[in-house]
Amino acid sequence: MNKDTRLSGVLHVLLHLGQVSVPLTSEVLANTMGTNPPVFRRTMAGLREAGYVTSEKGHGGGWMLARPLSEITLHDVYVALDRPGLFAIASRNEETECKVERAVNHALSDTMAKAEALFLETFRGITLDQLMPESAQGLGIHCKPVSAA
Hints:
Layout: H1 6-17, H2 26-33, H3 37-49, E1 53-56, E2 62-65, H4 74-80, H5 99-124
Antiparallel strand pairs: 1-2
Protein name: Rrf2 family protein
InterPro entries: Tscrpt_reg_Rrf2 (IPR000944), WH-like_DNA-bd_sf (IPR036388), WH_DNA-bd_sf (IPR036390)
Pfam families: Rrf2
């Protein structure tokens, strides 16, 4: 089963963006997510539209935070990514005549709804600055330094 790692990857990128005061290119940031620049740009589009990051094309362009990490919550990022699925558990057959299967479906959906509500409430209370380790390493661990041209 494929796991959706967009939330984890984007949080990683945002924390690194919080460490710099210059724009970083899609190429550099895509490398931190283990993907390619076009996929990176598509993934970040919702965050740009929500006003959490900015991007500029061309020489000297790149991605920057539009707000401090202290003003962005896990919930904000989750919503900007179009609410990726939190759980991989699903009902086998939503429309069924079987009373047993309907009871199973109800138990699963009710439990998942409660778990998701707990996740989202927790996400609302965590700002990205709270995730930053005190001795966080910069992007140098992910990519070669960009030479000055």
